[in-house]
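User: Last request for today: this protein with zinc ion, please.
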Amino acid sequence: MLKMTDPRTTARWLVDWVERGTWRDLPGVLLPSDPAPMPERGRFTAMERLEESARELGVVIYDFRGMDRLIHYPTKVWGYFRDKTRGKNIPKRGRARGRRKWKNCTAVMLHRTDVEEMGPHRFLGTPCHDAVANDASIVLCHPHDAYIMGGHTANSFAVHLELSDADGELLELQVAAALILVRYVHEDLLAHRDRDVVMMAHRQSHKSRTGDPGARIFQQVGVPAMNELGMRLGPVVGSGTQLPDEWLLGLDPDTSPITLT
Ligand SMILES: [Zn+2]
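Assistant: Here's the final one, the structure of the complex with zinc ion:
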């Protein structure tokens, strides 16, 4: 399913990209939404369960994991990503820097793009492992053991999930898609390492991202996923900061933050 891109959208996206970087948090008091029921475990793989859940929701999965990041793709479909040149739409930071040991992949980190109009194809050059696009489609960008430059000090251990959003508010369908995506990542990590996987926000790993992904997204995606999957909150690393209590509204009181050891 390929969608042509309106040039006006591309222009707006470019402007947004240049102007991005505030990650201003917006206060939110939305209650977490009810996650959809978990598909039956057992004989199905994590990927099969993700596909089944996506079918039920009616969202498309784009799998870009095998795509070469060193070549240029048609800009009408894939857009002009970075470096302000039409000849190069995959920026260096959109490429994986090798692989990590699975035992070191310990966290799911939520992000928001802080850019509107992020359709699925834009994520080919975005430094994240997986994403939920503006139309709620799910995008698989890199294997979860890939080293991706998406979260500052957390890059050595976090799986980066980007949610297409500019104002801290997701569509209901995006929230549902994000929840099945977190389940998939969580299950994939546990399949490779049998220890705790923690939840984190980009805010926890760099001082420039205090509103990333913001109160609303963390309440709607982070907290329900933590409650359902028994995930604890990961540590503050580098120049990051603690999450405000508001972000954790609705968190099961048994879920205590994890400290770095
Ligand atoms: Zn981020």
